[in-house]
Amino acid sequence: MTALPSPPAQIEPALVSRAFEVAGRLANDAADVIIATAGRGARPAPSESPFDWVTDTGRTLERHTRRILADEFPGTPVFGEEFGAEPSVPPQQGVSHFRWSVDPVDGTANYVAGLPWCAYSLAMLDGYGPVVGVVADPYRTQIYAAARGRGMRANGTPVRLPDRSEIRGGIVCTELTKNGPWPGMDRFITNAASAQVGVRLLGSPALAIAQVALGHSIAAVLDHYEEWDVAGALALATESGATVLDRRGRPDPLPRDGLLVAAPGAAAEVHEWWTQAAEVPAS
Fold it and tell me: Which cofactors, by name (predicted)?
């Protein structure tokens, strides 16, 4: 495996600290709104996929996020689940190499149903991947946050993955695509079961990755996603010590087309299951 080059220079520490503080504040705001509104009369307008709802809450939270970020980081583009790639304000010289990526309600179908498994996700990124990332887990009253080179924290408590080589009895998280199971998903589940590893589909890519960063699951495999689904959680995973690989098994802090996040001792085997599954036509 060939690693990406390291960033050539350290980002100004004051900028990272300010981004970390603002992102945490926005995550706390979003957690309060999600808890107050989930499953309580929400009337989503369905898009082309029954797995991909749009809600007033999502739009409101993303507008709030964009407004705060435009004030705090003028000229830095914001990309989001609800309003796409349109920047909040025109980029300005000297800041355009950063961008923000937000998913205001990750796990919208769960949110609409009142199932306690959805999240708010926000990341500041540069050309080398996430610089700062936060994921709010409202139902567990947790804010997971990380900054490049500063580690991961859960409600302020440092999190670091322990060494783990035993995968038997572990859990791997994955998710459906917008159109249902991804090609080879059935075979992947069979491969995992043969190794006595369970597979769970819980409905939130951000929380699926966060479970690896927290040491609750041994891996997460996502076959299809958007940047805002995963960027915040990938910051957590990297800073907790997890391995982040692309579909080909190459280290990448922000894979674009398929990703594997795993405890270091599980990465090679889980990637092999994924590769084998892709080679077998889905029945």
Answer: Mg(2+)
